[in-house]
Amino acid sequence: MQVGPAQPADEPAPPPFHAVPVHAGGGPWPVVAAVLIGCWAVAVTVGAQLTGWSIEQLLLVGGVSLPAWVWPVTGLANAVLVGVPAGLLALLPRSATVRATGRVWLVGALALGVFGLLRAIPLVHQEGYLAALTVVATLAATLVRRRAHRPDRPEREPALIGTGLAIAAGLALLLPWLWLGALGGRLESALALTSAAALGWFATTLLDQDFWAGYERHADGRPAGAARLVLLGGLVAGVALLLVAGGTGPGGSQLAALLVLPPAGFTVAALRRLGHLAGSAPTGWLVGLAAVGPLALVDPEEISILLATTRDVPYWTALAAGASLAIALLAGLGYGLAFGRVRAGVPRRAVAATVTVVLVLAAGGIYLGLGQPGWYGERLFVVLKEQAPLDDLMAGPTGATGQPERVREVHRRLVGTALRAQADLRHELDRWGLAYRPYYLVNAIEVTGGPVVRGWLSRRDDVDRVLISQDLRPLPAPASTHHSGGTAPTVPSWNLTQIGADQVWAQLRVDGSGIVVGSSDSGVDGHHPALVDGFRGGDDSWYDPWNGTRFPSDSGGHGTHTLASAVGDENVGVAPGASWIGCVNLDRNLGNPAHYLDCLQFMLAPFPTGGDPFTDGRPDRAPQVLTNSWGCPPVEGCDAGALRPATAAFAAAGIFFTAAAGNTGPRCASIDDPPAPYADVFTVGAVDRDRRVAPFSSRGPAIGGAPKPDLVAPGADVLSAMPGGGYEALSGTSMATPHVAGVVALMWSANPALIGDLDRTRQILRDTATPVSLPGANATAAACGPDSNSAGAGLLNAPAAVHAALG
């Protein structure tokens, strides 16, 4: 980099342009105190923010929402623990430099506390949070802004050069995010930019000339060296920016900001070597651009341990933040070396312009060429008031020939109701150019839109409610497929012998033949030896609304494992003679109401690849039994009744619907995520090898006091198939649920006249269940009520159920 003419070493330095006296005074103890308080501020802030996020995630996994007041209280406590010692540092020492350090840390701590209050806004209202952050950061900057003394005849070239180089450094910090991240919706992205700009302005008021004065000059007025300014001043500035980062973004985003913003302090310090004529603009540009990544290019809801099992958003966010940290340190070092050789060395304007232009082009090229350009905001799930009347079909015909007639009638009514009831709304959406996707299983429409559209839809007379439909942002690379190297069992697994499935095959010669089981999950490895022969085939037996694959595949492994427990070969599956079809509703372990309905509609009326569910559905090809090892919690956009019309439709159609109770036990009343609490769903808990209810198995009663679970099945260390031809033991009520689906397939295969007779089938399963043990039975009974709230009717018993089905 070229630099301007050097000032002779013996030429007296120009006087400082500020009025704050700079002197050391007080010996080394103020400096020691500043070091200790700085280390304390870093430790407390990082620890508080990381602990708060970890607790939030653990509660989320346990099915409990973090109270809205926890994050604000955490921020205020963090601010007090840092602000009190910083305030003492700002008042007591004689050294103006140390006092300035204390002041900037005190203001940073106050900002952390105030910004942290905004986390009371729910994550689903990201636009509201970003708008509030913009307003609060702007007000904070206005309140702490100080009037800077400027020279009578400012030279504009250093100011323009400093700003250009700051923009270049900020874009460099942003490059990893442009490559690895993705934007949200249009309004959300615009508000993220405004909040980042407001934070940049706040940083200029925080790191003002009064703060930098003590690091630019010694007590006697001599200019300080690059080491003092860049290393010492940059470190103190980094602590201040770390405090600001602790309050920046909703829970999760601040973890990335804690890595990105603090090292920018070194770059800001290096730019100060251009002289005070550069002004404060470089600080604002650099910090503002650095904040864009955590605020705009990642969804805080997706920085979750629910997505941390594979290379999903948490992985790429950590990678982007780490890369930004490294770039910031390199930028500070590079600028420090370039400007530190000669005092007040100023690069030529052409050099600064060239660097800036190169970074702008690089940013655009990376985003458009390597990144995920486009808008990926949350969508709106609009539930209409009118739902199809199906109650009169609940007692319809049964049997292998009668039940399909019920399915056809249910499909006809659902589609007809949706087309008529949605007509006016769809016309309005077309008129306004809003993209949407209609559904009939629940009379609902998924609409692309933000808060304004949501407000308009909520006020319509034909709309019952509007939910947020979580939409995962795309990844820079597909998540790796989960493989297992386990070998195939040579004898039936313990879980099959525990429920007596092997006895049904051997003694009754029943294996599920003639029954089709449908699985909605992460997918299915259609080439797996345990499943390949059971695939029904045809153009309407597989649907992947996430990736558009045309043959059964599974990257997560969960769907392969669960389906194989239902219909895999004789050593892993309950009904090895049954056929199966599949659908992907949880490609990345977080879904939404719309994706769940995509698969459920396919199960009611399968359609060919690329077909329209409304016009191309084939109810005659519907499976008789469904296994569903998933739930739709509020974080995904479901409320208690979101999928209620869907399960009611399957009940009216005579399709047996099994669902996992959930893994949030032993907490009482933890069966709360749809569809498990619904009365027309057969809900399954889990037991271990010793017939004891597993501690993780969710407990009842369900919402409204409904008795749940219905019964329990093997769910701890269950061996089953995994993608790639291997086998692995997994635990969860997800593993228990397909056992019930498999036994129903055995029952209906043994007695086809029972197909569609849901009441009789459920009663047989309950009546033939065997007792189980409850760890800590007395405590459970006292806390959760009857033992049935933990174990339902008891343990699934395949031979007794099939014998009863035969009559």
UniProtKB/TrEMBL annotation:
<feature type="transmembrane region" description="Helical">
    <location>
        <begin position="278"/>
        <end position="298"/>
    </location>
</feature>
<feature type="transmembrane region" description="Helical">
    <location>
        <begin position="229"/>
        <end position="247"/>
    </location>
</feature>
<dbReference type="InterPro" id="IPR051048">
    <property type="entry name" value="Peptidase_S8/S53_subtilisin"/>
</dbReference>
<dbReference type="Pfam" id="PF00082">
    <property type="entry name" value="Peptidase_S8"/>
</dbReference>
<dbReference type="InterPro" id="IPR023828">
    <property type="entry name" value="Peptidase_S8_Ser-AS"/>
</dbReference>
<keyword id="KW-0812">Transmembrane</keyword>
<keyword id="KW-0378">Hydrolase</keyword>
<comment type="similarity">
    <text>Belongs to the peptidase S8 family.</text>
</comment>
<feature type="transmembrane region" description="Helical">
    <location>
        <begin position="31"/>
        <end position="50"/>
    </location>
</feature>
<feature type="domain" description="Peptidase S8/S53">
    <location>
        <begin position="512"/>
        <end position="773"/>
    </location>
</feature>
<dbReference type="GO" id="GO:0004252">
    <property type="term" value="F:serine-type endopeptidase activity"/>
</dbReference>
<dbReference type="InterPro" id="IPR015500">
    <property type="entry name" value="Peptidase_S8_subtilisin-rel"/>
</dbReference>
<dbReference type="InterPro" id="IPR000209">
    <property type="entry name" value="Peptidase_S8/S53_dom"/>
</dbReference>
<feature type="active site" description="Charge relay system">
    <location>
        <position position="734"/>
    </location>
</feature>
<dbReference type="InterPro" id="IPR036852">
    <property type="entry name" value="Peptidase_S8/S53_dom_sf"/>
</dbReference>
<feature type="transmembrane region" description="Helical">
    <location>
        <begin position="253"/>
        <end position="271"/>
    </location>
</feature>
<feature type="transmembrane region" description="Helical">
    <location>
        <begin position="350"/>
        <end position="370"/>
    </location>
</feature>
<keyword id="KW-0472">Membrane</keyword>
<keyword id="KW-1133">Transmembrane helix</keyword>
<feature type="transmembrane region" description="Helical">
    <location>
        <begin position="318"/>
        <end position="338"/>
    </location>
</feature>
<feature type="transmembrane region" description="Helical">
    <location>
        <begin position="104"/>
        <end position="122"/>
    </location>
</feature>
<keyword id="KW-0720">Serine protease</keyword>
<keyword id="KW-0645">Protease</keyword>
<feature type="transmembrane region" description="Helical">
    <location>
        <begin position="190"/>
        <end position="208"/>
    </location>
</feature>
<dbReference type="GO" id="GO:0006508">
    <property type="term" value="P:proteolysis"/>
</dbReference>
<feature type="active site" description="Charge relay system">
    <location>
        <position position="558"/>
    </location>
</feature>
<feature type="transmembrane region" description="Helical">
    <location>
        <begin position="158"/>
        <end position="178"/>
    </location>
</feature>
<feature type="transmembrane region" description="Helical">
    <location>
        <begin position="128"/>
        <end position="146"/>
    </location>
</feature>
<feature type="transmembrane region" description="Helical">
    <location>
        <begin position="70"/>
        <end position="92"/>
    </location>
</feature>
<protein>
    <submittedName>
        <fullName>Subtilase family protein</fullName>
    </submittedName>
</protein>
<feature type="active site" description="Charge relay system">
    <location>
        <position position="521"/>
    </location>
</feature>
